[in-house]
Each structure stands twice: as C-alpha cells, then as structure tokens.
Design goal:
The structure holds 2 protein chains of 2 kinds.
Chain A lengths: L1 E4 H11 L4 E4 L6 H12 L6 E4 L3 H13 L4 E6 H16 L5 E6 L13 H4 L7 E4 L3 H16 L7 E6 L7 E4 L4 H7 L19 E2 L8 H30 L7 E4 L6 E5 L4 H13 L4 E6 L1 E3 L3 H7 L5 E6 L9 H7 L7 E4 L9 H16 L6 E3 L8
Helix pairs in contact in A: 1-2, 1-6, 3-4, 6-8, 7-8, 9-12
Chain B lengths: L12 E2 L15 E5 L9 H5 L5 E3 L5 E3 L9 H5 L5 E5 L2
Antiparallel strand pairs in B: 2-5, 3-4
Classes of the chains: A alpha/beta, B alpha+beta.
C-alpha cells in the first residue's frame, strides 16, 4: 500500500501495463501523470520511449504512428488539450488504433478555469472511443490496466479513454494498492501486432487513410458499430478477471450501490460518487431507502443496465457535471431514453463547484418529493447562487 | 481492403500497386502528345510527372501511359524543346 494522487495512480498503471511509447503534452491538471512517467523512464524503472511533442494534436498523431508499428501506446490530456487533439481523436477511433488515454476532466474556457467538469470528454463521445469514468485513485490505477485489455481485445480493437476529475481525483492523495507486475502480466498479454487493423509491416506494405468513396464507407462504420456492441461483454469480462486477479471489486459498465430495493436512486458519475455513497448511507440510517448507480462506462452506453438497476425506484435523480446547451444534462438525457419512467435531471458541480454529501442527500430528498407530487422529467440547476434553480 | 490475414480487414487499407485507384486516365480533359522529332530525350517530363505516367525506353525515348495520365499538363509546361502539346479529349 502506498499513498498516491489519482494522477500518479494512472502513471503506475501505465507502468504495470508495460506501455512502450508515450507521447504527451503537459496541461494542468494532467501534468503529474506524464511527469511521473518521464521520471519512471529516466530512472530505468520503466522501459518505454517518451516522445516530447509540440501539441496534443501531435501527441495523438505520434500515438497513432507508434500503435501502427505494433507498440502499446499511452497519452494523457485535459480540456483544451483534448479539444485541440480532437481531429486525431477521431482518426484513432475511426482507424481502430487500440490506444489508451487518460483525460483529467477540466472545464473548457471561457472564462478560464482549471476545475473539474465532464463536458470536455463528453464532447468527444461520437469519436469511436470506448469511454470510462473513474471514481477513485485506486480505480484510476486499475482502469488503466483494464483499458488496454479492452482496447486490444480482438473482438473490440477500439481506443479507450478514461476520465478522472480534476483535483478532487487527480491531485488528491489516497491509499493505493499497486497491481503486482506478475498479476498485470497475467491479466494483460503482450500486444499482438498481427491483430492490429492497421499494422505497418515493411514486408506487407499498405496505405492507410486514403480516400474511400460513398460506396464502401458505411460498411466500415458498421464494423465499428458492431465492435461497440461486443465491447459491453468484453468490458464486463475484463472487470471480472481483474477482480479475481487483484482481489478488489472492479466495475465494468456500472457500479450498483444499495439500489436493489431503493425508492430513490441517484445516477452519479466520477469522483463525487464517493460522496453520493456516503449520502445513501446517511439516508438509509434515516429510514429513506436510497441507492446509487454509477456510470463507469459512457461508451458503449450502459442504458439497459441502468434501466434494470433503477426499475423499482419511485424517483431517479440523474446528476450531471456537464451540459449540452439547448438539450440538457448529457448523461441525464441519454439515460432517460432507456427508462420507462421520466427521471429528474440535476445539473451540479459545473466549473468545479463542490457537490457535497449534503447536496446528494438533498437531491435524493428533492427527487423523492418531486416524484410524490408527480413532477418528473424536470431539469434543475442545483445550488445556484443568487438565481432560482 | 486487405483480406490477406485474419483480423486485418477491419479498416480500409490499400496496397501500393499499379492502378490501386483505378484507371485515373479517365479523368483527363487534355491529352499530352509528344512529337518525337522535337524531343531531345532530356527526361524532364519523366522527372516531373506527378503520376509516374511517363515511361522511358532503352533508347531514351519517352511515351505517355494514357491509362493513368490525368492530363495535368506539367510535362508540356516543363519541356524545354516544346515537344509536348495538349490536345483536347473527346
């Protein structure tokens, strides 16, 4: 057991996964991840090539090139860096390069902000990447290793990005159990270059990324759609195998916390889910049957799994630390399309404002009271200062 | 699309080979025609052709590969002896 920040937990995960090429550009609050990796490589504790690049666009380009040569690659970024990288994020997704990327979730400017919000990552949700969101430093560490297993699985072969909340997760030091190298090696076999959709083999030269007409494009896109269909099973399988290998409960698509008999279920995501669980425990002690479901995987979206977990609840409160302007909370709206009963959507923690245990407790009570009045399908901006929510 | 090995036909790939993009000569609007009497066999046209659509013989003579010549006219432009003329197709 060591004490490490969420960022360093990711770096140690990258080491355990034996990533061979790292190309990254520093940005607050991701910098610690790549600083630690540079340190591990420099000291000889990790065998990898670190490519210093001039931008995030170049970082992802370098990862694509390295992956195409059969190397296991890693990069990390955040908000503006991810936005700048976006073109190559799509190239990696549509080109089916099983790259793994950590995204430290930070609000996009203006006004300038460094604090947490999930909109940066969610804005990339149609790029062909599997997307996950971590709830603790331990989960960030374990998910790093799990991500490679999912990405490189021959039934999937799509890149994986996983998020961790700026500061509340990235910079907060927690107890961390490192995955033993032997355990990691047993769980994650070496990358087989022959399995890669694009493999730059000098003996079998190919051109990738050239023009493809409307006569064939749809079929290639459909192959990606099918891979995402298979990914759900692969994610659950990877979580189960890593649970067995580490002795720690790993979550694949969702985390279900005391929701089976709950009257009110909060659908949460990211670092604040820990506070949400505390609120659930307090409510239970007070005699209110509360529960939580946490979205661990965003793409493929676990709509059926969420619907099944909240089926018996009178009220479902979906807390979004993100927003799609002119539409609503992104997770709230996406989940609502799978639910038979309209949920309540709470927009909270925008721009890094704290979502406390007390907030979750009040949200649960508010949702239950709203449901009793028959007021469902409402969106509320929670904790507005000087405004009516 | 490369179907040579299992698992490889998941993304669009092409093999670098003659005619990988089809008979691109069909795109041509103007046809470059060489006058052998004026040609000095300097091979500038062969060097500049962006499509590799000019061939050279053992005797130094050059000729157009009309299956792939797109008719850009660069050969005619660079020819020092003005021996390549562009003739409207069709």
């Amino acid at each position: 057991m060591i004490i490490a920040t969420g960022n360093h937990a990711v770096s140690y995960g990258v080491r355990a996964a034996r990533a061979e090429v790292i190309a990254a550009y520093p940005i607050t609050p991701q910098t610690q991840i790549i600083e630690k990796l540079a340190e591990l490589i420099q000291s000889g504790e990790m065998r990898a090539k670190y490519i210093r690049v001039e931008s995030e666009h170049s970082a992802m380009s370098a990862c694509i090139g390295a992956e195409a040569c059969g190397a296991r690659t890693f990069t990390a970024t955040s908000s503006h860096g991810l936005a700048y990288m976006s073109e190559m994020v799509f190239w990696a997704g549509m080109g089916r390069f099983p790259i793994v990327m950590a995204v430290v979730n930070r609000t996009l400017a203006p006004p300038w902000s460094i604090w947490n919000e999930h909109t940066d990552m969610l804005a990339q949700r149609d790029s062909g990447w599997i997307m996950m969101m971590c709830g603790s430093a331990q989960e960030a560490h374990d998910t790093t290793v799990m991500a490679y297993r999912i990405a490189e699985d021959e039934r999937v072969l799509q890149p994986v990005m996983f998020g961790l909340d700026a500061f509340s997760l990235s910079h907060t030091a927690e107890n961390l159990e490192l995955i033993d190298q032997e355990v990691a090696d047993g769980f994650l076999p070496p990358l087989n270059p022959e399995s890669l959709p694009v493999y730059m083999d000098p003996d079998n030269p190919v051109t990738f990324g050239n023009l493809l007409g409307p006569d064939k494009m749809m079929e290639f896109r459909h192959l990606i759609k099918e891979a995402f269909g298979r990914a759900k099973g692969v994610i659950e399988e990877a979580a189960k195998d890593l649970s067995n290998a580490t002795g720690r409960k790993q979550h694949g698509l969702i985390e279900d916390y005391r929701s089976s008999d709950a009257e009110v279920v909060i659908l949460a995501m990211g670092a604040s889910s820990g506070d949400c669980k505390d609120a659930v425990d307090i409510l239970r002690d007070e005699g209110i049957k509360a529960g939580m479901v946490r979205v661990k995987t965003i793409r493929p979206f676990p709509g059926e799994e969420i619907a099944s977990s909240v089926r018996g609840a009178k009220a479902v409160a979906i807390v979004d630390r993100d927003y799609s302007y002119g539409f609503g909370g992104i997770i709230g709206r996406e989940a609502a399309s799978y639910l038979s009963k309209k949920p309540l959507n709470y927009i909270a923690g925008i721009g890094g404002r704290d979502i406390t245990v007390e907030d979750f407790r009040k949200i649960a009570e508010d949702a239950l009271a709203s449901a009793e009045r028959g007021e469902l399908g409402i969106e509320k901006w929670w904790g507005m200062r000087g405004f009516e929510g | 699309m490369n179907k040579a090995k299992t698992g490889r036909a998941k993304v669009a790939l092409s093999k670098p080979s003659e005619g990988a993009s089809g008979l691109t000569g069909l795109w041509r609007l103007r046809r470059p025609v060489i006058d052998p009497a004026k040609c000095t066999k300097c091979h500038l046209c062969w060097l500049y052709c962006p499509e590799g659509a000019i061939a050279r013989g053992a005797d130094g003579a050059v000729w157009m590969i009309y299956e792939y010549c797109k008719g850009c006219g660069i050969c005619s432009e660079v020819c020092p002896s003005k021996s390549i003329s562009l003739v409207k197709e069709g």
